[in-house]
Amino acid sequence: MFDDRMRALAGLRDEGEALRRRAWSAAKVPGEPGSDATGSVTVTLDEHGRVANVAVAAYWRSRLADEHLGGAVVEAVRDAAMRRLNAWGEAYAEPVSPEPVSSAAGLQQRLDSIDSATLPAAEREAALMALLEVVESIEQGLDEVTSRLDQTLNATHTGHSPHREVTVELTGGGDVTSVRFDRRWLRDAHDANLTRQLTTAFRAAYEQVAANGVPRLIADSPLGHAQTVMRDPFGFARRFGLAG
After folding, report:
1. What gap in Å lies between CA 69 and CA 165, rounded to an integer?
2. CA–CA separation, 72 and 76 (whole Å)
3. pLDDT recorded at residue 44
4. Are 80 and 88 in contact (CB under 8 A)?
5. Which SUPFAM superfamilies does the entry mention (predicted)?
């Protein structure tokens, strides 16, 4: 029973690692910048899908009314996200080079050593109990996260530029819902300053999401503990003398 559970853990880890490597490889493929319909706003996303830069064209006032600039920014962000999603999907379908055997099979080789029966029965039992705790943490964490997910995703987090010239609102999942400007400041704002203040406001809003959004929800749940263990399976094995 112990060997079966440990091998199941190793198998799940290997499958998860393969998916992670494929997703990570796809995520590193840059999507094209997005823009609004008038071409007044251009947005570039980083590898995590967050707004890395917002550029406002010098001619934007000839194509947009002041009150429509915020909507154009949101439109450009969504266009960039769609382009990135398309690029991600194409890259994800491409084959990924397998992980070196020395790394991918390392945990399995350690677990195979259990068959030598060198581990005392008491320690084998303790390791099994610890493994079951990890499984229970995953189940409890999933239940807890699921029950609070809608509330967290629908929450609104706000970021401002230093003097509140620009305000950006994001959902707990990081989706942009609103971009607003101080009207008096906007009348005379230079396009380069618009770019700086927008980028700063987005950065501040993402910091609020990181502190209160889905990543924090997971980290504060039992699932966060399980993730820590799964990120370091060798540490788990070392606790019970299963790894050198």
Report:
1. 13
2. 6
3. 94
4. no
5. YbaB-like
